[in-house]
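User: quick one - fold this with copper (II) ion bound?
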Amino acid sequence: MKNLLPPLLLACGLLLAGCAKKDEAPAGGNGPLTIELTAGDAMKYNLNRIDAKPGQEIKIILTNIGTMPKVAMAHNFVLLQNGVDPKAFADAAATAIATDYIPAALADKVLAKTKLLGPKQTDEITLTAPMEPGEYTYLCSFPAHFLTGMKGVLVVQ
Ligand SMILES: [Cu+2]
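Assistant: Sure. Structure tokens for the protein plus copper (II) ion:
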């Protein structure tokens, strides 16, 4: 059993790299990374992990591929600072309807975010990966979506 682990991890790593690193500059470079994120009525992102190098430029293109009306089912991408409790953020976000579910009191904990998107809407942002290696949580701050599993991690290393 023990011997199976390394090849399994390698396979997982290759799979993730293949999914998450579309359009990246040649391997080993520090070129910009383009990540195409989708989210639909199942309240999940297509990618739960993004790998980047410290300081790397990342273009995030988020598309809501769902069909439900925006008032009932909208999505965003909110990248949090390291050390911020994502559940506490999501709880505070749930009542922040006037600011598209970005709680004003915690706005300084947000490293990057897209607009809140209704069905068939897309938003594109460019962010710079933090210089400090670590795992940075991203989530959808629409009520209950984080708890349903609409989250992922930006791994900077
Ligand atoms: Cu969502």
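One thing worth noting: Confidence is low (pLDDT under 50) at residues 1-29.
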